[in-house]
Amino acid sequence: MKLLYCAQYHDYGYIDRGPSFEEINLGDSLRRMKDIKIIDFHFDVIQHHGCDINVELLSIIDKERPDVTLIVLKPGKFDPQALDRARALTTLVSWGTDDHVDFNTGYMQRYVSHFDYCITTYKQSVPWYIAAGQPNVIVSQWGCNRHFYRPSDKDYLYDASFVGQNYGPRLQLINYLWSHGIQVAVFGRNWPRTRREWRRGLRFTLFGKGWIKPKWLSPTEMVEVYGRSKINLCINNNITAVENIKGRNFEVPGCRGFLLSGPAQNLEEYFEVGKEVVVYKNPDDLVEKIRYYLEHEDEREAIARAGYKRVLRDHTCEKRFKQIFSIITQAQRKNSRSAHVRKQSQQRLTITKHGCSNGSHHSEETMVSAPQVIQTTTDPFVSIVVPCYNYAHFLRDCLQSIIEQTIQNWEVVVVDDASSEGDPESIVSGFRDSRVHYVCHQRNLGLAAARNTGFRLAKAQLLLPLDADDKLAPTYLEKVGLALQKRPDVDCAYTDFQLFGARDGVWHNRVRDAATMTRGQWIPGPGTLMRRSLWERLGGYCEDPELYPTNTDWDFWLAAVAMGVQAIHAPEALYLYRCSESSMSARGKYYDFQTREFMYHRHRGLFDHFGTGNEFRAEGYLNSARAAWHRGERLRAVYLVANAWQLSPRRFHMLKLMAKALMPPFLLSVVRKGWRLLRGIDVSESEGAL
Questions:
Q1: What pTM does this model have?
Q2: Residues 393-402: what's their mean pLDDT?
Q3: What's the fold here for domain 383-580?
Q4: Number of C-alpha atoms within 13 angstroms, CB side, residue 104?
Q5: Is the distance from CB of 302 to CB of 277 less than 8 angstroms?
Q6: Strand ordering across the sheet containing 2-7
Q7: pLDDT of 457-504, one tens digit each?
Q8: Rounded distance, CA 413 to CA 451, Å?
Q9: In the chain, how many H helices and how many E strands?
């Protein structure tokens, strides 16, 4: 069998890191299988060199004609149209790595129907695949690369260890173990670096001793830790909840290590619990079992040996692939599509192959099997999507600013997100313009869903999100649209903002780097003209209800910079942004800490790469604390500031907020007046912030 293997080579796609989980387990195992000729397609490396991965994928498939193409899916990497073309020349198979997350964000639903078969390790996701139009679902599981994960012949170095990042309740659980005298060695990113930092950052006092390496372990170092730990912990994101089986559940036994795991779905189908691996129920049970198996060495070693034998017998990655390919081969024999039918359906299409970052390019003739997409001159130059929820009183001015554009080849899609006030439909119909379309949700789905609805209905290849209470300068489409059209290497373009309403002035934007995006959003949400291909690669806006609408754009652009988005800025205020105290942006500060926690976990790899995760989360707690204080919710403000302090203790304005929250109103007034007298300010002036 000739197999084209498409996956990231580097961990999380970052070139400066070592090989990824997929490379170590899947890629290396495939290369060692004697009956498979593997062709590597590492799309993170290709993208790093500035090449178009969709064009490169079609080119290599046409050249090599693999029997099967296996793609380890990552959000926003492949174009659905390119996948459809690839299916005409090869059997296209996807491997979903985080189906429980990717289906919740709406990413997987847009892609699974473009594959012949889909592999999942999450059994509960099968109905989701079927509902998304993919009936050919293969349920498999993670495994162990027996050539990489091997037993250690060295003496034990740790009583208990945990390898993983610090997020969710993990920090509290490790501290709980330490407080009970359990010496746990902790490895991974975002853990406190010193014992003093642990005391500052945790609510519990540390009594036991532990050892921390707050850095990302190399794969070889991780294998050594597994083999030299008497007990290896597998901690769930939620301490007591039953979660998915992780790769660690097979890797630790593969190193002949003793695995003490949190509850995992269907784990008993792969191991005999109590004889090959051990599962704890809650923190108290975890403490009890660690102590028990540290004292009963013979029993612990017997379980470790039994788990090792079980992995070698049933749970190597090679065995997983043999089962998968056997299922695909049997299904293909029953499939009516044969090789000569494919050859008859092939058409010659010209694919423009973009070169690397120097801007050079060339073209080549490639055979692909797909219906041709014919661009007609009737398609609009730009599609403008205007979500509207209870903003009908602003909508007329918004649409009028589009009507007055110097470029008239546009269309507008107004998405009424089930407004309970006003009548957006009558305003749209009042313009009597065939370029202005109206669609209405039956229930309120939120800003992200409204934009996605509009973008799906849009006909143009350039898309512009425009808020219903904002406006465009008459030359916006002319200057920004034509600038983007002249730069095929750029994904989006934006301008400065002219503020009006409750505030006036100019909001200057400029292009910055990916690290800056983790600290603050520098690509605007509304008013940024983007290519349709960018929106499709990112899988659209995240529609998860945990993401408050004010951070929908920031979440979108975090995903964009992670995949190397290219943006340009027009230094002219052509977008008119309405400022209002009752706007969505003002209300969103109250929930900022919740949405930032959600965004942090969605883009954890990006934050970990730049080391900005704790600062990002702390700022969210501070924003929510300010909003709570202004609402008079002082206890809530204290709680939120305390959380911010745990994440980032060296911030003076946290002390100010804490003081404001704790002081009685009359005392706060006295302090404010004293502060003004010291600064020489007339105390008769209206009070401001301390």
A1: 0.52
A2: 94
A3: Spore Coat Polysaccharide Biosynthesis Protein SpsA; Chain A (3.90.550)
A4: 11
A5: no
A6: 37-42, 2-7, 68-72, 91-96, 117-120, 137-139
A7: 898 999 999 999 999 999 999 999 988 988 888 999 999 999 998 888
A8: 9
A9: 30, 23
* Structure-token pair, residue 355: 């070169």
312-329 residue pLDDT tens: 999 999 999 999 999 888
Please check whether the domain covering 158-310 is classified as CATH 3.40.50.2000.
Answer: yes
Interatomic CA distance for residues 320 and 315, integer angstroms: 7
What integer pLDDT is reported at residue 73 of this predicted model? Answer: 84
For residues 77-85, average pLDDT? 87
- CATH, domain 2-143+319-344, list 3.40.50.720, 3.30.1360.20, 3.40.50.2000, 1.20.58.100: 3.40.50.2000
The residue assigned the tokens 């090959």 is 276
Which tens digit of pLDDT belongs to each residue from 21-62?
A: 889 999 999 999 988 999 999 988 887 777 888 899 999 999
Indicate whether 640 pLDDT > 60: yes
Task: Determine the distance from the C-alpha atom of residue 121 to the mean position of all C-alpha atoms in its chain, rounded to a whole number.
Answer: 19
- Interatomic CA distance for residues 209 and 143, integer angstroms: 34
Closest by CA to 69, choosing from 335, 322, 325, is 325
3-state secondary structure 390-404: CCHHHHHHHHHHHHC
User: Interhelix angle for 297-314 vs 283-295, to 10°?
Assistant: 100
Handedness of CA 61, 135, 95, 611 (dihedral sign): positive
Joined tokens for residue 569: 């800025």
Contact (CB, 8 A) for 491 and 530? yes
Closest residue by Cα to residue 256 from 153, 187, 159, 182: 153
